[in-house]
């Protein structure tokens, strides 16, 4: 990892996510006052995602 980066873990609502959604790709949008950044995620479980923060 480079300076300033961190790993963000996101916990999704179990009611919103079905286990049949195995092939779904998730992305996170980081939005600031002047910039936006889209990051792909790594699916850890059917309700947990991880992404590297910019």
TrEMBL record:
Gene Ontology molecular function, alphabetical: MAP-kinase scaffold activity
GO biological process: adrenergic receptor signaling pathway; positive regulation of canonical NF-kappaB signal transduction; regulation of Rho protein signal transduction
GO cellular-component term (any): membrane
Superkingdom to which the source organism belongs: Eukaryota
Record InterPro entries: Rho_GEF
PANTHER family in alphabetical order: A-KINASE ANCHOR PROTEIN 13 (PTHR13944:SF18), AGAP007712-PA (PTHR13944)
Protein name: Uncharacterized protein
Organism (species): Danionella cerebrum
